[in-house]
Design brief:
By secondary structure, the chain is of the alpha/beta class. The chain has helices at residues 13-19, 77-86, 94-100, 105-111, 125-131, 156-162, 167-174, 187-193, 218-224, 229-236, 249-255, 280-286, 291-298, and strands at 9-11, 28-31, 37-39, 53-55, 63-65, 139-145, 148-153, 201-207, 210-215, 263-269, 272-277, 339-340, 344-345, 354-359, 363-365, 376-384, 391-393, 398-401, 411-419, 422-429. The radius of gyration is 54 Å and the shape is flat.
């Protein structure tokens, strides 16, 4: 014959005590470590329930607790039979059994699809207050206190206000468009509005957002009613060029100096001046009648103290034949203290025609930039250091000669010429 197996809620004694659930009326709770069980009444928490006991027999008249139950409930044939006899198999569905074997109320709520905060709304005093109201047309619920609510009338106009999409739209509905219907708040206007007007008084600002009243005399009014600045200067007796000197930055700069003995004012820039020492020798120079006298004072008499002009002096814009050689200083400020370990070296003829540096890392050598219609030639000496890297070239029209190496101590002379037809690099290894 068919039968239904009932699985009783079960857990350890410690877990039952910690959870302290309220068992439904008739619901069993089994302690797996003590072998005891309790039957709920739907009201009393686990910790306050007594363990299940049966009445004593044999004339004892007392009550005796069941013995220790070991194993599963199903293995207790007498208990299993008694429970099966009490259970109406036709009334308990498979789903009901899944609910009955849940370990606690939280698990049962999950089985029933009643998880608080997910499936159902948690108890809330404000929501309860709202649910206690009786809705009606044109009524709006609002809170009157903690956990209490009431209804107020929501007119058609009120609805047109609260359905506005923004504060700007709400101001339009209220007829309070800032700058059209009402003046935008301004701290300065508020400060003036706070004053008390009186005869011959003029409002003025004493600070940011603060104002006061000043006396407005007849003379003051005569000045303010002038049509322009020129008329005002006439009223004040300050006509420029007649009553006062026109402003001049240079004069103002000199006026700002403090005079002292043997000092001469001079300009240090546009509209700026300072004082220089004006020695007796300086005075003897500036009082000379002409340049010849000035050269005599300076000890620079031409042909006596200094060399007169000589046409044989070499000029940059005149062809000439040099009859003697010359030497130049090598430019050596590339990288860090003349050591290049990365980047691009671009010699500039403005630094002279002789250059040198130490190769201490991979880098690029590029030609100098020359203005169209001009040409330049220069030499770059490169010495490989202990960490010499590969030297690549970039931008040259043609590269000839030997190849660069990375061997420590190797030296190379690089002859560079740049002109309108392009740039040439000729590398000569010196070892």
């Amino acid at each position: 014959m068919s039968f239904i197996r009932l699985q009783v809620r079960r857990d350890t004694t410690a877990n039952w005590t910690s959870a302290n659930p309220i068992l439904a009326s008739g619901e069993h709770g089994y302690e797996t470590d003590s072998g005891k069980f309790k039957i709920g009444d739907g009201v009393t928490a686990w910790a306050s329930l007594g363990y299940f006991v049966v009445g004593g027999g044999g004339g004892g008249g007392g009550s005796a607790a069941w013995g220790t139950i070991t194993g599963s409930i199903a293995s207790q044939t007498d208990l299993s039979s008694a429970l099966n006899a009490k259970l109406d198999a036709s009334a308990a569905s498979a789903f009901a059994l899944t609910v009955m074997d849940d370990a606690d109320a939280s698990a049962m709520r999950t089985t029933l699809g009643l998880v608080i905060g997910t499936n159902v709304q948690a108890q809330d005093a404000e929501l309860s207050a709202l649910s206690g109201l009786v809705s009606a047309a044109d009524q709006l619920p609002y809170f009157t206190g903690a956990g209490s609510a009431a209804l107020t009338t929501l007119s058609a106009y009120g609805r047109t206000l609260i359905d506005d999409a923004s504060a700007s739209a709400a101001r339009t509905t209220l007829g309070l468009v800032i700058g059209t219907d009402v003046q935008a708040y301004d701290a300065e206007l508020a400060a003036i509005a706070g004053l008390t007007s009186a005869a011959d008084r003029l409002p003025y600002f004493t600070g940011a957002g603060t104002a006061a009243l000043a006396t407005f005399t007849a003379a003051g009014r005569a000045l303010l009613d002038d049509a322009d600045a020129a008329a005002q200067r006439t009223t004040l007796g300050l006509v420029i060029g007649t009553n006062v000197q026109a402003y001049d930055a240079e004069l103002a700069a000199i006026a700002g100096l403090t005079s002292a003995a043997d000092r001469l004012p001079y300009f240090t820039g546009s509209g700026t001046a300072a004082l220089a020492t004006f020695t007796s020798f300086g005075r003897s120079l500036v009082d000379d009648a002409d340049a010849a006298a000035g050269r005599t004072t300076l000890g620079l008499v031409i042909g006596t103290d200094v060399q007169a002009y000589d046409a044989d002096t070499l000029k940059s814009d005149v062809s000439a034949n040099l009859t003697a050689g010359f030497s130049s200083t090598q430019y050596n400020t590339y990288g860090t203290a003349g050591v290049v370990s990365s980047g691009t070296v671009t010699p500039a003829f403005a630094n002279g025609n002789e250059h040198k540096y130490t190769n201490n890392g991979a880098h690029t050598l590029a030609p100098p930039t020359v203005t169209a219609g001009r040409a330049t030639s220069l030499t770059v000496e490169i010495t490989n250091g202990a960490s010499a890297g590969a030297i690549t070239t970039s931008g040259f029209t043609k590269v000839s000669g030997d190849s660069f190496t990375t061997t420590n101590g190797h030296e190379f002379k690089c002859f560079i010429h740049v002109g309108d037809t392009g740039s040439l690099l000729n590398v000569v290894a010196m070892q």
